[in-house]
Amino acid sequence: MKFRIACFLLLMLFFISSCIQKQATSTLKSWDINEIRIRDPFIIKDADAKKYYMYAQKGNRMEREEWDRIPGVEVYESSDLRTWYGPVEVFAFSGGFWADYQVWAPEVHVYQDKFYLFATFSSRDTLEALSPVDFKLPRRGTQVLLADKPIGPFEPFDNKPHTPWNWSSLDGTLWVEDGIPYMVFCHEWTQIQNGSMELVQLADDLSKPVTEPVTLFHAGDAEWVRGVSNDGKVTDGCFLYKTKGGQLIMIWSSFGENQYAIGQAVSENGKVAGPWIQSDLIFNENGGHGMILETFEGELLLVFHQPNSSPKERAQFYRLTEVDNRLVLGEKYF
């Protein structure tokens, strides 16, 4: 009898929880994906709730004059990738935080049953440029924050970035290899002219780096990359993926003949430390900063923003296939 009562109570709790979640979603504004201006889209999925979560910097939906004044990170929820609900704030700058200027490229990773926000923050402090630029170089770096839920709130471990303090760095992403967590990030072309892709090992709880950065490659190593201002060569938007055949691939963005583009590099030994060999372009029509998502139905998608001009950016979804341990772009998902 007690067992039956316990089962009944558990079912009632599950039913009430489901109703609360549905009610919470129904109170949020609904958006078609084409209505959402977003740069650097990043999506994770929750198999239990059958939901997708898409993270965006708060400035995406602000007027131009507000983009840098109201920094923060938001999330949208969806069950089908087409209709989204939100946004819900998951992190906002507060007084005393080292960064007070911009937030870029938020992405969330599930690791050891917790949720980690990797975001690029900037402050109004300026850094020394090691290459000729005609603008002030803000202090910029990737920082990792922690939450128990995908909707936050995310809290920083410390009041400083995980990337070197005097580097202009961005677009950090997580990769776990042999149980060891690493962060791959970009050292900006604005500081070193020929932008680089860098690797650091993180503490087991992702709270801090435990090694010095190691350079994996430079933007100029890829034949398809073209220089921008002062012949600077950009590294942006890295994301790592292992094929079914065990090949480790990094997709990353820079500028090519048709503006913003996504290329792929291949680890020669299958390890994140490389060496890395530059391969062909995946997309070259003024869109980039991509990530790879497997849908609930098992389809592999490349997700990125296009065009690379504000305020027209929208999330794009293309099917991906693996051919000879390389990624090949397919047709649009919708």
Description of the structure:
With 334 residues, the protein is mainly beta. The chain has one domain (93-332): Glycosyl hydrolase domain, family 43 (Tachylectin-2, Chain A), CATH 2.115.10. It contains 2 helices and 21 strands. Strand 20 and strand 21 (326-332) form a beta hairpin.
Considering the chains and any ligands shown, give keywords for the structure.
single chain; 334 residues; mainly beta; Tachylectin-2, Chain A; five-stranded antiparallel sheet; four-stranded antiparallel sheet; 2 helices; 21 strands; 9% helix; globular
Shape verdict: globular
Q: State the major sheet.
A: 5 strands, antiparallel
Structural Rg: 20 Å
Number of helices: 2
Number of strands: 21
- Average residue-wise pLDDT: 91
Q: Work out the count of structural domains.
A: 1
Q: Strand sequence of the main sheet, in spatial order?
A: 1-5-4-3-2
| Helix residue percentage | under 10%
The CATH homologous superfamily corresponds to Glycosyl hydrolase domain, family 43
User: What is the highest CATH level, the class?
Assistant: Mainly Beta
* Distance between the first and last residues' Cα: 52 Å
Based on the coordinates given, report the CATH architecture: 5 Propeller
**H/E element string?**
HEEEEEEEEEEEHEEEEEEEEEE
